[in-house]
């Protein structure tokens, strides 16, 4: 960890520090005192307490493998490409899927490496929100921190919502394939399954660090195995593959945007949705052993893996996709799942689609770890229950006429309301 004690003393609100027999005392701007017994902390926690003036409360369960696996799980490469592959296809065909990933991914890598450097210097669960408070000019810290915190929260909520929506689509696509396409996917079904999956995510995020670490550790092995086996199966089983000229140079826009070059830029959406949430690993740094080393290492390697493996996976999909208009117009609403069905048949398509569902659920679990998922789920549940109960209790039928004269107010209920009550009772 970088030695930034002098910088912290100048930038933080801590006015005084004193040590005596392993005791750290901090005094805040309002005179509040905090006593931390350094002898009760491990080396990493003691260093955090000394340099940042607070006591970490999480258990450090994450090692190298689980930290790297956690960082890889944030992107959910295999599943996220499945849910976003249609955007570059509409934008410019196969070349948009290939070249937009390569170009935009390079920019995403620059952001990831910058975030990794910040996490190395400030390994706290506050992530970028905390780093901003240390790096920004003191007069700008409140406003910039406020903006950063809200953008982070809204981004997490929107990201999880889109991931849960994609998970619901993939699960129902597997059901439709299993029914030989006799089951018709509706928007109501997708939203209902999405809501149930969101509640499930909140429940899982309520587990302790011990169980989350155990689940996360094996994720990267499962993910890589599915990704490699899927690519091999597609290349081996697809009979009529496209040639290299079609994949890398045949630009075809079906988005409706003109000119084609402008439409081509929409292909950046896929990689932007995949290589994101770079600071998620920062939110568990207080649960990582030697976080100043392992956290930035995991972020850098995980994003590099996502960048390279994602580009290769897109190339394989483009070679094996067949007619793009056929898979884009699939009745199950998942072009890649339809691609699996065309190349691998019923069994193979169900298997890899369900694997994609499992992987994207891990994205939801890890992205919201130590965040607001459980809290938001409780709020939504409480609001939903209250809405249902109050609606059943107070609703008496449609109001035919809401306007009433002032002089009628003292003469009893309005005739329109009386009419509604009679209709409801009837």
UniProtKB/TrEMBL annotation:
Annotated region (Disordered), positions in chain: 404-426
Gene Ontology cellular-component annotations: membrane
GO BP annotations listed: amino acid transport
Superkingdom of the source species: Eukaryota
The protein's name: Amino acid permease/ SLC12A domain-containing protein
Gene Ontology molecular-function annotations: transmembrane transporter activity
Biased amino acid composition, Basic and acidic residues: 417-426
A family per Pfam: AA_permease_2
Keywords: Membrane, Transmembrane, Transmembrane helix, Transport
Localisation: Membrane
Primary location recorded for the protein, binned into one broad class: membrane
Spans traversing the lipid bilayer: 62-90, 96-119, 140-159, 190-212, 218-236, 257-275, 295-319, 339-363, 369-389
Membrane protein topology class: Multi-pass membrane protein
